[in-house]
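Chain A, query sequence.
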Amino acid sequence: MTTVWSLQRGANVVDTGVRFSVWAPHASEVSVQLSRGDGSFESRPLESHGGVFEGTVLGAAAGTDYSYRLDGGRDRPDPVSRFQPVGLNGPSRVMDPGVFKWTDHEWKGLALADMIIYELHIGTFSKAGTFTGVIQHLHELRKLGVTAIELMPVAQFPGARNWGYDGVLPYAVQNTYGGPDGLRMLVDAAHGEGLGVVLDVVYNHIGPEGNHLGEFGPYFTERYKTPWGAAMNFDGRESDEVRRYFVDNALHWLAEYHIDSLRLDAADNLLDVSPRHILEELSSAVHIEGTALGRRMTLVAEADANDPRYVRPAAAGGYGLDAQWVDDFHHAARVTLVGETTSYFSDYRGVASVAKSLRDRYVYDGQFSPYRRRKRGRSAEDIAADHFVVCVQNHDQVGNRATGDRLSAVVSFEQEKLAAALLLLSPYVPLIFMGQEYGETNPFQYFVSHDDRDLCELVRAGRRKEFEAFGWGDEIPDPESEETFVRSRLDRSKVSEPRHAAIHTLYRDLIQLRKSEGALRPGAPAVRVEHDESEGWIALTLTPKSGRELLAVYNFSRAESHMPAPVTDRGSVWMSVLSTTDRKYGGDGMCFRKAPGSGHIILSPHSAELYSQEQAS
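Chain A, predicted structure.
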């Protein structure tokens, strides 16, 4: 496998031993402390070359534990550590990424238009809470029909329980999940099942506990603030090496772990006024490496700004990323299904907002936002739909509720099926949150396991303050409690219960339709959206360049809804393809009916119907 890139910082195995390289521009001397295997360490000085301290230790090998000592101070883990066998407070371990025996040689990656993403958290997806635990369920996911799994962050965090966004050493794979080779085994197995792997990475901040990066160099800046503390130094003095640190990190996931796509957490908090934004630099490097490896590699931004610049080509003034999350789709759906009106949900107006998101990507593309008290967004109507990822649930939208309640806990059975159809018949790239496919009712709550007691109390206070705008009560689960973590684990036994089995069957059938119908391939069809807010219906017509035209009809009303009968081409009729009211999905079998003498059809409450235009016999 040809590559144009290899990791130069950190500890790298070479023919004669191990080459150590660490950036520490303000240090006078740096030594590497090498474990002798008996609890003692041998100190070896490194030579300075323009702020980078380097040296080769002859005879050292993979498996050697080590740390760095700056100016005679405390021993610290390597900022580019690939593995922390005993956690953040122990030494780093030399790893040789070249010894793993990959079997995915034929895997070439996935186009975004082919992605049906399944987001999961390693610790709560299985009882084992490890990469191996995920491997045991990959075949089930393939049978469901999803085409990619998205892993919440796996970079080393404090303790054993965390969402992953408190990661401290971005190159080190969490030891309690199974470490570097555990992740490689998962990726290799996923590719063997025909599943791509998306990895969530955090480049906007570093977690607070065990964070010693600032001792090595100016990784952080006080010029900006993020909601999580100091911002990364992407544009200040000595920022070139900081930029390299994160660009190399992205490339190392792709080259050393065969990851297919990276989801960039809170990309709008990658604060940078350089002539070339860090996102553009990331995008260019990743796509060059993908070409060299002969694999399709993609970058997906999570960003709240409704700014199409993230996915515009660099030549057109954009950052050149491949896709972005669209929160508007979720928020509009949530308001329409649940009637939520607090905090940012107050910006959305039910059916009209859902219809606009289906048609225009964003609900807010330049309009005044009452919640933010300013104009928000910019039109993205010229950008193909396969550049946008949508959901009706994800880790944020479930876990950042006071009690982590899933959609299944607050809507009816029929509404849950309606939400599934809205997501999987949309013109965008769909994302399913783990357990959603069978209507999991266990919550997904916020959990951490910090050793710093003061930090624990700050986390609790922060959660309470965050929820004030939503008007939620004080019954917030303790993030530090192991019970909070255990409550968040999936319970797959529910799939055998009739209601959950029906939802699972619906998801499987919708996914199969998405794969087989050209009109449901993101970016392929022309889209027309009509709606009636008073009646509560939306009609979504999807016309592909070739293949049959589809019509998805949604009734968000709790009552029957009257909709004008859809028009067909001469000599054609609309034929039912799928209805959420079908008995095999636990419904009453009542699909749409013609209203006598009115030219209208009657839609069942909280239902979705899919039709195809066929030649009349």
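The first strand starts at residue 10 and ends at 14. The chain has a mean pLDDT of 94.
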